[in-house]
Amino acid sequence: MTNKTKILIVEDDLFLRRLCQNKLEKEGFEVILAEDGMRGIEEAKKTSPNLILLDIILPNIDGFEVLKILRDEVSTKLIPIILLSNLGQKEDIDKGLALGANDYLIKAHFSPQEIVDKVREVLEK
Q1: Is residue 10 part of a domain?
Q2: Overall pTM > 0.90
Q3: Range of the domain at 121
């Protein structure tokens, strides 16, 4: 059994998923991957990660819907969630935060190291 901090990445873009995974693993985190919203919900319930990085534009069920479901579920409602998206409009950010996201990162504006820094910052709160 590992004592590593578990991060669930819910991201349909394979390149970005691997990029974040590699960076987080190098920083000592255990990483769980999900390529769509339904798998993300299943993994969150099954693995109880310490934090979730959640894309918004996903196949089948979008990140906003995943966020709603996770916030309504007793076993997942307290897990910190950082939305990671290319949707940078203020209304998208406001919607994500209103639904219970702890933070919102616009993919194009953040390097993998900055994502790791944000993960650490949210985990310390």
Answers
A1: no
A2: yes
A3: 31-87+101-125
